[in-house]
């Protein structure tokens, strides 16, 4: 019987959801290896957790590398936990994520719904590196750091290949202006201007297709891969084209709500972060988008849902946090006006869990699109369209 600290030699069968490698002992017991391994690799691993039915482990050494494995281009890759799949070409990473998603969905949906999955559409990132316009750094003694892989140790950074060039270049100087702690830094895709979350700087972010330029503070959440976000927003807006009253739930600063309003839709945008609501309201006023209303409300509370119900949307966008929104499926079932949902997810397994009451009531998944929003990592964004029967 294996225990913590044991070193094993295993062959990786496939990559599971959340980037873990799956291997098995001769006994058939499952071993899940932390992200950074590839299918068919022979690896030496150290057991980090011994549960009743499975083991967890971390790779110590790659004994027989996959033909897909290349040299990671980042000098900090051995220590930093930020880009565990940077050892494969970006297009290969996209293919691996599609395989991971196709493998995870039937199990997440279960026997009743797993046979009714639409064909997966895959949209790669325009850039494989240097795509992030927003990121977090840990500052110590005026220097930027990242979190170490599978630890709380800090790794000093001289560069980060995930960050766009203006932001990576400015990172050391931005860190000098900050005290010790964790901070958000950001750059404008329009001008290259950089800033930290401290201060009152507003950065321009344009949606050329919608004729909009937003002004966003670095501390307010927005999609860091702004180039691919254009495709995500277009796909979401197009999916709701036939509906005039739309609720944008967990709306942030208006990533979907403002483009929808520019198309003349009547939008109720609900978000639990007051700074994001303030930002969205300010941009709507500046852009003369009178058909969108932002509301600061906690969607975990009934009062927020009464407001949504009174609005009587025919369609809704949901973009909850990674942990999902437990109970939301049952709540949505109680809204008879709804006919279509555009569910944006950065953890689709949690999303399927939350959507099961809808599926059990006959709602169907009509469309699935994977957006490779985070190249170099196992993370992905999925747009799932659900239709009322």
From TrEMBL:
The alphabetical list of record keywords is: Methyltransferase, S-adenosyl-L-methionine, Transferase
The catalytic activity of this protein is classed by the Enzyme Commission as 2.1.1.190
SUPFAM superfamilies hit by this protein:
Nucleic acid-binding proteins, S-adenosyl-L-methionine-dependent methyltransferases
Matching entries from PROSITE patterns are given as:
SAM_MT_RNA_M5U (PS51687), TRAM (PS50926)
Q: Which residues bind S-adenosyl-L-methionine?
A: 223, 250, 271, 319
EC class of the enzyme, as a word: transferase
Keyword Methyltransferase appears in the UniProt entry: yes
Q: Where is the TRAM domain?
A: 1-61
Q: Under the GO molecular function aspect, what terms does this record hold? A: methyltransferase activity
Residue positions of the active site = 346 (nucleophile)
Q: Which residues form a coiled coil?
A: none
Name one process (GO BP) from the record: methylation
Similarity section: Belongs to the class I-like SAM-binding methyltransferase superfamily. RNA M5U methyltransferase family.
- Name of the protein in its database record: 23S rRNA (Uracil1939-C5)-methyltransferase
**Taxonomic source organism:** Desulfomicrobium macestii
């Amino acid at each position: 019987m294996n225990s913590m600290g044991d070193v094993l030699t295993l062959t990786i069968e496939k990559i599971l959801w959340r980037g873990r490698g799956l291997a098995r002992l001769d006994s058939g017991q499952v071993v899940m290896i932390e992200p950074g391994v590839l299918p068919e690799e022979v690896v030496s691993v150290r057991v980090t957790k011994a549960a009743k039915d499975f083991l967890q482990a971390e790779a110590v050494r790659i004994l027989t590398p996959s033909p897909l494995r290349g040299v990671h281009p980042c000098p900090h890759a051995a220590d930093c936990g930020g880009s565990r799949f940077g050892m494969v070409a970006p297009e290969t990473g996209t293919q691996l994520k599609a395989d991971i998603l196709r493998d995870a969905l039937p199990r997440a949906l279960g026997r009743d719904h797993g046979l009714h999955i639409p064909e997966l559409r895959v949209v790669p990132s325009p850039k494989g590196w240097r795509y992030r316009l927003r990121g977090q750094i840990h500052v110590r003694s005026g220097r930027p750091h990242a979190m170490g892989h599978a630890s709380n140790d800090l790794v000093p950074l001289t560069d980060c290949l995930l960050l766009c060039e203006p932001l990576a270049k400015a990172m050391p100087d931005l860190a000098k202006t900050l005290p010790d702690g964790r901070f958000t830094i950001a750059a404008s895709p329009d001008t290259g201007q950089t800033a930290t979350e401290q201060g009152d700087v507003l950065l321009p972010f344009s949606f050329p297709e919608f004729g909009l330029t937003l002004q966003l503070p670095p501390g307010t959440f927005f999609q860091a891969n702004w180039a691919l976000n254009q495709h995500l927003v277009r796909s979401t807006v197009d999916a709701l084209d036939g509906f005039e009253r739309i609720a944008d739930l967990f709306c942030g600063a208006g990533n979907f709500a403002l483009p929808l309003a520019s198309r003349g839709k009547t939008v109720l945008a609900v978000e639990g972060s007051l700074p994001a609501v303030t930002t969205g309201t300010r941009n709507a006023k500046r852009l003369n988008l009178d058909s969108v209303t932002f509301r600061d409300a906690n969607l975990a509370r009934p009062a927020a849902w009464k407001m949504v119900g009174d609005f009587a949307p025919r369609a809704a966008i949901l973009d909850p946090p990674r942990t999902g929104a437990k109970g939301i499926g049952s709540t949505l079932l109680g809204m008879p006006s709804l006919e279509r949902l555009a569910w944006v997810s950065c953890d689709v397994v949690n999303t399927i869990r939350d959507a099961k009451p809808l599926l059990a009531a006959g709602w169907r998944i009509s469309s699935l699109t994977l957006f490779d929003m985070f190249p170099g990592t196992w993370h992905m964004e999925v747009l799932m369209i659900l239709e009322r029967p």
